[in-house]
Amino acid sequence: MEHFSIIQALCRAAMGEPTLALRKQVERLKDALAKDGEEKQAASLAGILATAERLKEMAPSRIERSRAGLSGETLGRNTPVPVDRETAAALAEIIFPSEVEGAAPLFNSTVTQAVGTIVDEWTDFEALATVDIMPSKTCLIYGAPGTGKTRLALWIARRLELPVVLVKLDGLVSSFLGTTARNIGNLFAFANRYRCVLLLDEFDAIAKVRDDPQEVGEIKRVVNALLQNLDVRQNIGLTIGITNHPKLLDSAVWRRFEVQLEIPKPDFEVRKAIAAMFMPPVTAPDSHLRLIAWFTEGSTGAEIEALVRTYKKATTVREDDRRGLLDTLRQFATLNAARIQSERRTLLFDGPANLFRAMRDDPILAFSMADIGEIAGRDKSTVSRQLGRQASKVDGGMNHG
Fold this sequence. Notes:
The chain is of the alpha/beta class. It has three domains: about 55 residues, no CATH class; about 170 residues, Rossmann fold (3-Layer(aba) Sandwich), CATH 3.40.50; about 130 residues. It is about 55% helix and about 10% strand. The protein has 19 helices and six strands. The chain has a six-stranded mixed sheet. Helix 12 crosses helix 13, helix 12 packs across helix 14 and helix 14 crosses helix 15. The radius of gyration is 28 Å and the shape is flat. The C terminus is likely disordered.
């Protein structure tokens, strides 16, 4: 190749701080040279790639550099966890980063950006320390059940390459409330010793309104113990509380959390993305994903996943038992009535013309006649005729009135 020495120098300079896309292009060039018989030049690029990989392995990552700035011990797989003195039951479960699903949970852009700032604070721990600022050490994640709160907390821990000390707070409450306060103290002492994410799930089990007349006075001391331990949480990890019932939390509890992140139910585009994420290995047409997203308005990610499972079952059974998408939606709506909005459920079981008209006229779906026909298992001329008859009935009714 003419001027290869210049190309070689450019590749060597660029691979000093390579991106994934850049590395891919250098690999493509190497393969192309090898295919053209330029073995020496291909070998030179292979050497540059190998050197860059060795340097990458030797250089500490941002996260590794940040963790090096943290005090605290490393939590290992054989580290004993604290137990309840009365029952000897473990007070927590340890989850390591390699055990957490790598795919990021799907949220709207606002939530995604907010989560990114939490991760960035901890990965830039050293930079913040230079201006005497510490990353947020407490975060409350709240929202409806099934919106992905626990999955998000685990994913944050994976990004930070920190193990999770997972505590189900409803299981922490002992019949001896004095024991519960001691268990809380032991858990926080454990979390303050090791670099970790302390994940307090079902947070409202303990952090109830202290003025609740249904609770005995001792529960107030338990809540106070929790608040005091949150106050002294060490800067060696993040504490995340999760609740489905934010209204049950004491106002003093809210003040202890520097970050208060609400996870909303997914919008149309996020619902479609969630359906696509759970669909493999089945391949669904884009129109099917859009209709699933449309019919699951107001649903959570967990409910969309349940519908996708129903869809996958319906498309993989014997040919004569397979259901079309509309029949699958009707089946799901019958077995999961509360998961589909009443208006959409009525359309499913109403005459096809009303459903077809709604699918055609909705600006989010913007279905063509061909789209509707494919979903309904009819040709577009049949769909058009049904819509025409429906329009004639409407017009006739108006004229008669």
